[in-house]
Amino acid sequence: MQAKDVELLHKLCQIFAPSGNEVLMKEFLLDYVAQNQEHWKIKPQIIQGEHFQDGFLLVFGKPRTVVFAHMDSIGFMVRYEKELVRIGGTVAKTGYKLIGKDSFGDISCQIKLQKSNKKHKKEQKLLTYDFDRKIETGTELVFECDFRETPDFVQSCYLDNRLGILNVLKLAENLENGVIAFSCWEETAGGSVGYLAKYIADHYAVKQALISDITWITKGVKHGKGVVISLRDSLVPRRSYVQKIIALAKKSGIDFQLEVEEFGGSDAKDLQRSDYAWDWCFVGAAEEHVHSPNEMVHKHDAVCMFELYQYLFENL
């Protein structure tokens, strides 16, 4: 990864954007487009508005393919009596640092797991915060960003999906024909992809998609072996389309690995359940320590992700 890519990734990982509150990420991205589009091969049309809520589209040339990248992150919401409720599938351990803001000011606190007073057969842990004052009910908290870089790895909270966003921003530099769709709520079961996809299908007759997101290191997916093409997670994409992606990946010479999982999901959920005949494929780097402050991705896998997306959009 180039130094400028790592620097931008660090900035993205620090942006406060838990599911349902993606406004700051949207503002950052729109500002980034405004500042950089003059240097891109094609200046995109920006489509946004109340009909898209906080999601938006960048449309380049005559699109054939759309890539979806979700802007939101996991996090926590303050409940009552110092209780926290997870936003998405967040990993919580005592001592993890959280940040946020309420009407009384900035917040920097820690997670504290306590024994629950409720009687269960299995011991339950109550998820709370440790702070010197009460935090207002409904306040959102996210992991404090501790960004680390080594010669081979980047490590931080929210590489899922800030690395997926970096990928599409790099794609935009040379993209001549295509749509980049920035979505919301992916970490809490989705919701915005449906109307974004409907608009794209109705206005551009595009019905093939890629999902720019981050997957998991597993026994079959290893660090440093290339970008991951997913054959399935909890959903199964149309095999002929995935085979087309794999054939192009082989032709490109870019390192990739195949994933077969039983669980998990992405923005593809809304495409699969759409009234439109969407083809989709998840293509992304894999990370370790998923949904924690210590998500870790191999730089080679990230670079392979960048390169394969460029190749796919030129050849799909």
Low-confidence parts, pLDDT < 50 over ≥5 residues? Answer: none
DSSP helical segment count: 7
As for the CATH topology of the largest domain, it is: Aminopeptidase
Question: For this entry, what is the oligomeric state of its chains?
Answer: single chain
Structure, briefly:
With 316 residues, the protein is of the alpha+beta class. 28% of the residues lie in helices and 28% in strands.
Q: How are the elements arranged and paired?
A:
Layout: H1 3-13, H2 23-36, E1 45-47, E2 56-60, E3 66-70, E4 75-78, E5 84-87, E6 97-102, E7 105-115, E8 125-130, E9 140-143, E10 148-149, E11 153-156, H3 159-174, E12 178-183, H4 193-204, E13 208-211, E14 215-216, E15 227-232, H5 239-252, E16 256-260, H6 268-272, E17 279-284, E18 286-288, E19 295-298, H7 299-315
Parallel strand pairs: 3-12, 3-13, 13-17, 14-18, 15-16
Antiparallel strand pairs: 1-2, 2-12, 4-5, 4-9, 6-7, 6-9, 7-8, 10-11, 11-19, 15-17, 18-19
Helix pairs in contact: 1-3, 3-7, 5-7
